[in-house]
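Support request, please re-run this one:
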Amino acid sequence: MDYIDLEQWPRRAQFKFFSGLSFPFFNVTTSLDVTTLHRHTKARGLSFYYALIYATLHVMNGLPDFLYKIRGKQIILHGHLDPSFVVPNGDTHLLKIVNVPYGGTLEEFCSRCAHQVAVQHAPFPAGTEEARDNLVYISCLPWLSFTSLSNEMDCNPDDSIPRVTWGKYEARDGRLVLPYSVQLNHRLLDGWHLGELVNGVQAFLDAF
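Re-run finished. Output below.
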């Protein structure tokens, strides 16, 4: 983790401009073609959900601008981000949030996710885990598709944790397509960065 010199930071003007807003967040919902990922995971007995988390974190960790975080009047740069994702809590309709270190191969990551989901009985991670800011909040609505989405959150302009949510995939012209929503803090990231993420995830999926 490194502290950034704001006066030398290339984004200082944009950061200061959007810092004047009480709600400096923007959310975009787009679509991903997940045909090849779905085929790959089914053939190998892997979780499609965990695999798409892996793809998202793989790309996001390769984009340095996503590693910046706001801490009061300081900006820090993390070395990597980990996923914090939602799963059903056992056989109930209640949710459970699980944090898993990102890394390794897709197969290793899926195995690590399955293990943590199985051994974590509490609905939420420990307080120290929840307080981390090198996370990406991930959720899924597998029961329905959607064209827009909003996230629950405190109106804290320093909140710089990305929120990524996707919905039910649907067949369109022989392909599987799902809605993919990303919420970011405009003090750190713009539409160009969002495009880098979404296009990068699609390219990663297409390579399977």
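The longest strand covers residues 175-185. The radius of gyration is 17 Å.
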